[in-house]
Amino acid sequence: MKSERLQRSFRLWSLILGLGLAAPLSAEEQATGTTDDTSVSTEATQDRETRRGKYLAEHPELAAQIEERRAEREKYLAEHPEVAARLEEIRTEREAHREELKAMREQYLTEHPEVAERLQQQQAEREARRAERQTERDAFLANHPELAARMDERRAEREQFLADHPELAQRLEQRRQSRRGGFFGR
Fold first, then answer.
1. How do residues 172-184 score in pLDDT, each as one tens digit?
2. Are 123 and 186 spatial neighbours (Cβ–Cβ below 8 Å)?
3. Alpha carbons 103 and 9: distance in angstroms, whole number
4. pTM of the model
5. Would you place residue 2 in the very low, low, confident or very high pLDDT band (cuts 50, 70, 90)?
6. Taking a C-beta distance cutoff of 8 angstroms, is the pair 109, 119 a contact?
7. Which residue, 60, 35, 22, 48, is CA-closest to 181?
8. CA distances from 85 to 1, 91, 180 (A)
């Protein structure tokens, strides 16, 4: 009894706060198409999304629960505009804070050109390593055409899926755009 009450209480608070523990996006992210974590690389994000999608495909009951919670969150926010307004206010405050930090970073780099130069050098090194890995990958796939063919097939399946689900494709693109740049303004 106590456990059930605790679970309901926890679920209610997570619903109110928009946490939805297993939800792919918070309610405000779903509404705006933005996320707060801009430091995560695109590759890591895509890998995480792929693993999450695969897991949810293997566990349709969980996917249904997540969708149900998302709908409950939307309904709750529609019924409680003051909570929705506060969430929007928090999002706006975060964006303002992020802009303030960006301005502080730019000022610091202007005042410390040696640090800015080192950051540019590190970025160039990362890009060179990335290009080297791409060259190695291309060579590997040239030596393993069956894997290259399978990758092309999977790419075509993914593109077809996104073509069939344009709203999802749009949300994914919005997330990618919001995560580009990271802290160092790449």
1. 888 888 776 555 4
2. yes
3. 41
4. 0.42
5. low
6. yes
7. 35
8. 34, 10, 27
